[in-house]
Structure formats: structure tokens, C-alpha cells
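ingest -> validate -> predict -> emit
validate: passed (alphabet ok, no gaps, 291 aa)
predict: started
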Amino acid sequence: MSPFAERLMDQLYEASNLRLTAIVELARVPLEARQRLMERFAHDAFPLLHQPCFANLRDIGPWLFCSGDYLSLDGQYDFHCTLSEIAGDVPSAWLISAMEPSRLANHLGQGTIVRGPQGDTCLLRFYSEQAFPVLHARHDLIGISELLSPIKSWWSMVPHADKLVWCHYACHNQPNRFGVPPIRLDQACWDALNGDPLTYRLAEQLQASLMTLSSDSKHGTRLAHVRKLLGEARTHGLSRPEDLGEYVILLTRHGQDLRDAPLWQAVLADVRDNGHPLAQTLTKHLSLHSK
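emit:
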């Protein structure tokens, strides 16, 4: 049993009515694994996007998975192992709550529609590893506290280069609290949720490249890899999104050989000194080098 599984089981042991569930966004699951997942949990998975307006997104959206009728600790541990084996690191969250799973999915689904600072209606992926820490820190906003009320513990993945790391967030453990009032995000929360979208875009873009370079191309590993290279790029004075993206892609493909190349060092110095785009500067130096 992994240390994370032990922590989950220790919490479930505290009360017999506690249930382990997981939120999985199906769009992030490879098609073959997605089919296995839905076949295995055909009667034990509930969509968060239950509203009629989301009918076209439901099959690729977030679903809440549970152990079904297997309520013992062994049964819930088997559920954890099976879901982890099929979905890998794709689950956005592991939850512990005494609320019945289908009711919990309905409750959580009410938090997927929010209003932004300008009053626009938005679909909020509140369960994502990017959004949840931001929202958990904003209980002052109407609806956030109510959204988390039925949850005892929420575990969200933290990107890490070498292993899966799950961060624990204590919630309210009030399973009788059902229903979420309309959530309205203020500008500070909106800006925090936007975070650094470049990191997540590059992590998805590099999935195929990293699969050819390493047997471990899990989402969390890719995020950590991208964040490391973005930090490295910024230390070289790169700031434009297109330059940062080029740096990450090139270093992912060519690694230490590129870092050690005198031509690459000259390119970085040229960009830093003259402010020209990285791709344009690299092309110029390659052209000069080939003459």
C-alpha cells in the first residue's frame, strides 16, 4: 500500500459512513482507458455536468467515481487501486465525504457554472489542480464555502518531476449541506485562476514528445518539467510567451546537448542583448553557422 493510500484509508477508518470518491475529467483520459473506466464503473460514476446545457460536453467532462456497493475499507481500497491503475494520474481530486456519491456529484456540479467579475457566465473547472487551491483559499466568496461543505477531505495533485504528490485540503465535513448558491468571482480570484496558462498549454503540447523520450509522461510530471524549463528560460532573460514556448520545446527535444552548444549560448546572448524573437535569432545564427 502506498503512503498516499494509507493516508486515505486512515481517514476512512475514522467513521463508517465516510466514502472515497474521485473526480476524473474524461477528456484527459486516453480513449482506450476511458472505455475501460466507463465499463468498469458503469453504475458507479456520475457526471458533474448534469445540466442540460452541458449535454454535448458531458461525455468528456468531469465525473465522480465511487466504489459502489463495496463500502468496507477493503472495498474502497480496491476501488482506489483499480481507478489508479486504469486512469493513472488523471484524477484531478480524491474526496472523502459522508454524502451519498450521486447526490455529491449533483451538489458539486452546481459549482461548475459561475459568474466572472464582469458578470459573464463561465464554466469553471473548480476541481482542477490549478483552480482548486485558489478557490479553497477564498471562502469569503459566496458559494465557495457551500460548495465544499459536504467534503471532509480533498486531495489535489501537485505537479512534481519525479513522483505523484497529493496535497491535502481540509473542508467542512457537513454532509447534510446540499446546494450551492451562484458563485461570483471577484477580479483577484479571476486573475489568480488565470495563473500561467502557458504552463498547462505546453504540458499538453509536449505529451507526445515526452512519451518518446521517457516511459513516464504523466500529466503531473509534464507540468513539473515545463515549469522547470520556463524558470530556466526566464533566468536567461526570456519573457515573451512565444520565446518561452520555443525554449521549452527545443530543450525538451534536444536537452543537454543543446544547452552545451556554443551556438545556443550565442543565440541566448543575442536575444538578451538585442531583444529579437528567439526563433528569428536562432534561424539567423544557424544561417551564419552554415556558411
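Residues 241-260 form the longest helix (20 residues).
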